[in-house]
Amino acid sequence: MNYSNSNRLVLISGRSNEELAEQIASSVDISLCQRELTNFSDGEIFVQIQENVRGSDVFIVQSTSTNVNDNLMELLIMIDAIKRASARRITVVMPYFGYARQDRKVQSRTPITAKLVADLIGAAGADRVLSMDLHAGQIQGFFNIPVDHLYAAPILTDYVKKQSYKDLVVFSPDAGGVERARAYAKVLGTGLGIIDKRREAKNVAQAMHIIGEVDGRDVMIIDDMVDTAGTLTEAIKALLNAGANSVSACCTHAVLSGPALGRIEDSDIRELIVTNSIATDGKRKSCSKITTLSVAQLLGDAIMRIHEETSVSSLFEY
Hints:
The protein has helices at residues 18-27, 68-84, 113-124, 153-161, 178-188, 230-241, 260-266, 282-286, 296-307; strands at 9-13, 35-39, 45-49, 57-61, 89-94, 128-132, 147-150, 169-172, 191-201, 204-211, 218-226, 246-254, 272-275, 290-293. It is an alpha/beta fold.
């Protein structure tokens, strides 16, 4: 009897970020599992796993980024296909978890969609989730399966340390991000500031007040994501008006939807440092102010530790 498939590591990619999946596969020295992913003329998604995964430890790499609903549905169908192919365990590797900003009721009669998505992933048949820089840490508790939550901070701070900044100070773009900014400031050995932000409408924000010393200093704004870049560009204006020497920004997830790239190009930002948790398209690559760092090695290390049943906790620290 052949037990060669027992506990074999299998890495398979959806279509949301195939470049990152290839880099992860290279970091763990395996090939991506062959699969067919197509759409019917009405938009329905078809999945076929083209290798035997019976008894295997399967990791699905899929960020639920733009187009978020298509990528989420594709992920759920892939989980179902792999479950029905008798995989031993299914781990969803979601560098970017879409719908994370809908993590609580902020108005009456509104959903908590992050919880709904967590339920869907579990109901589809996933056994565990590996994600990175969730918008709110408590989203881990929305899942009824184990969640490993990584941070891109070691990669981002290592890059920042190598740059030539003049008397650097770290800023949070709002009160909710102070904990994240404080952690970066501690690693970088800098001061900490906050921008008092008043949100006027969805995806519209205006920076109102600077809390902290910026005059003559280089400022680094720390956030988990940049979406339309409205908050970021308003923060840049406010900091420069307050006397900052230059303004840069770090974020893990470069959503960059709608007018974001145009706003970044037209702004006075020195550099926007992001990761490839979301696929890098041609327009983003052509933006001279954006630097993209890879998180493939970090995710690859986590995947190997999960597969080998060793501790992942050291990767959580930053």
